């Protein structure tokens, strides 16, 4: 300190101008000792590099600290944790690859959906053009000559037409309605006064459908008469649940009971999780009691459950797998002969729905198509133990022209649209008679994107997956015909 003060005194003697701009400051060095420093401008140098002072010392200290950290990161300490780091990095890379695969799968699904929508748009544009041309034709036609309204006809007398023998007809309240003057013997409603003025013939066709009102109908089979309103039980929480399949085993075996509900979310490229719920209440709350990891990935929404086993199509193949729930192992596998797969013969909504498995009162079924069938629906009954094809039927309706299908009592039913809120079940094929026919049974897609429809013979309901929603439908079957 004495030396520094002496230097400061000498600096004060250099001149008055320098003395005016002199300053003194103090600070600690790296060892924590106090230093006093007095500085004045040089009369001969315009500038000089800074080589000392507390700021430089502080920078040196921080630089030393950074050098220590760098040496630790690149030295022995990082080597000590190299094994764990590599494991973590590998896990992270695997997770990133899985996320990439899922993103690629979703992109492919969206690309297929885009192409399908573009095809539908082209069809609608052609239809609009046809309707426009038809409208132009109608506009160019001359209007037909108008016929003056005929005067009211005299009242019709009571006759066999008005009152059939044995009692009045169901239409008698229309035909013998009293007029304003209380006359009940004739027709006075203006809606009935058109050509010919003196005679009206009423025709009606009534089709009687037997209703399941007897005890035998609760256990027997019959043709589908009607489908009830959809009832939603749960909505999926993530995009992975836009499409999916849910099931209950109609012939459950230990260790799972008949109330157990199973669910698979099918959006993604590696679908392997099977969620189990104790009952419908737990499903609606979203609390699974069991989560199984399937040994091989699932393809699309065609899986089903029967006698303690999950039946599903292996991803990117025509192989059918039987997964035993009790042992949690693959119990059987078999290729479905010549079946299309991975987008060759899907339903109209896409989703790689080439092979659709289902269960009814007669056992296990597969709905698919082949190149030989040229895209027409093929129905095969499978052995539930070995998956061997027992018998097959080829229909005359194309698989990609319908939205979905299901089997009830050995009869295949197809749904016309997966997006229309009010569509129909438009076709029925009876495997007993090997004959198909058009039908028109109303069906509702409440949420307008139905990707799965299956029949549960124990519940006598349809289960569906409609745009994130798990849905069920009550059914009405007609009485089984005597054989």
Helix/strand layout:
Layout: H1 2-12, H2 16-20, E1 23-28, E2 34-39, H3 54-74, H4 76-80, H5 82-140, H6 172-175, E3 224-227, E4 231-235, E5 244-247, E6 261-265, E7 271-277, H7 280-285, E8 290-298, E9 304-306, E10 309-313, E11 319-324, E12 329-335, E13 356-360, E14 363-368, E15 376-382, E16 389-398, E17 404-408, E18 411-415, E19 422-430, E20 435-444, E21 450-456, E22 461-466, E23 469-477
Antiparallel strand pairs: 1-2, 3-23, 4-23, 5-6, 6-7, 7-8, 9-10, 10-11, 11-12, 13-14, 14-15, 15-16, 17-18, 18-19, 19-20, 21-22, 22-23
Short description:
With 483 residues, the chain is α+β, with helices and mostly antiparallel strands. The chain has 7 helices and 23 strands.
For this entry, give a set of tags:
four-stranded antiparallel beta sheet; disordered N terminus; elongated; about 30% strand; five-stranded antiparallel beta sheet
Q: Strand-residue fraction?
A: 25-35%
- From the N-terminal CA to the C-terminal CA, the straight-line distance is 122 Å
Separate helix tally: 7
- Please estimate the helix content: 10-25%
Category by helix and strand content: alpha+beta
Helix-strand pattern, N to C? HHEEHHHHEEEEEHEEEEEEEEEEEEEEEE
């Amino acid at each position: 300190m004495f030396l520094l003060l002496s230097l400061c005194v000498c600096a004060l003697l250099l001149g008055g101008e320098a003395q005016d701009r002199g300053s003194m400051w103090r600070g600690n060095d790296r060892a924590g000792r106090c230093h006093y420093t007095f500085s004045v401008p040089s009369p001969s140098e315009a500038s000089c590099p800074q080589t000392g002072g507390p700021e430089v010392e502080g920078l040196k200290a921080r630089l030393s600290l950074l050098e220590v950290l760098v040496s630790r990161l690149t030295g022995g300490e990082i080597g000590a944790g190299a094994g764990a780091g590599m494991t973590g990095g590998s896990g992270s890379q695997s997770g990133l690859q899985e996320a990439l695969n899922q993103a690629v799968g979703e992109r492919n699904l969206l690309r297929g959906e885009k192409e399908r929508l573009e095809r539908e748009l082209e069809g609608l544009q052609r239809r609009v053009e046809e309707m426009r041309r038809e409208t132009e034709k109608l506009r160019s036609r001359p209007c037909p000559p108008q016929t003056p309204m005929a005067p009211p006809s005299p009242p019709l007398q009571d006759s066999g037409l008005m009152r059939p023998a044995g009692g009045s007809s169901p239409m008698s309240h229309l035909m013998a309605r009293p007029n304003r003057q209380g006359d009940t013997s004739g027709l006075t409603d203006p809606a009935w006064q058109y050509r010919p003025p003196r005679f009206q013939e009423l025709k009606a066709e009534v089709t009687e459908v037997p209703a399941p009102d007897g005890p035998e109908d609760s256990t027997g089979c019959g043709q589908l008469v009607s489908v009830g309103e959809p009832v939603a039980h749960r909505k999926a929480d993530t995009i992975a649940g836009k499409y999916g399949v849910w099931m209950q085993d109609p012939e459950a075996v230990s260790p799972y009971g008949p109330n157990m509900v199973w669910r698979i979310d099918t959006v993604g490229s590696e679908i392997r999780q099977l969620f189990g719920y104790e009952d419908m209440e737990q499903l609606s709350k979203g609390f699974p009691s069991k989560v199984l990891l399937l040994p091989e990935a699932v393809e699309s929404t065609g899986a089903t459950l029967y006698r303690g086993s999950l039946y599903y199509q292996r991803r990117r193949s025509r192989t059918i797998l039987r997964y035993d729930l009790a042992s949690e192992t693959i119990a059987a596998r078999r290729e479905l002969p010549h079946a299309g797969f991975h987008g060759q013969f899907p339903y109209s909504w896409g989703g790689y729905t080439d092979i659709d498995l289902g269960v009814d009162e007669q056992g296990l079924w597969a709905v698919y198509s082949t190149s030989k069938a040229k895209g027409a629906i093929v129905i095969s009954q499978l052995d539930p133990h070995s998956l061997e094809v027992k018998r097959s039927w080829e229909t005359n309706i194309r698989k990609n022209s319908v939205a979905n299908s299901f089997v009830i009592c050995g009869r295949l039913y197809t749904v016309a649209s997966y997006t229309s809120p009010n569509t129909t079940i438009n076709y029925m094929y009876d495997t007993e008679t090997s004959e198909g026919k058009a039908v028109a049974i109303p069906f509702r897609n409440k949420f307008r994107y139905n990707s799965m429809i299956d029949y549960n013979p124990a519940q006598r309901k349809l289960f569906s997956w409609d745009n994130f929603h798990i849905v069920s439908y009550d059914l009405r079957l007609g009485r089984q015909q005597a054989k």
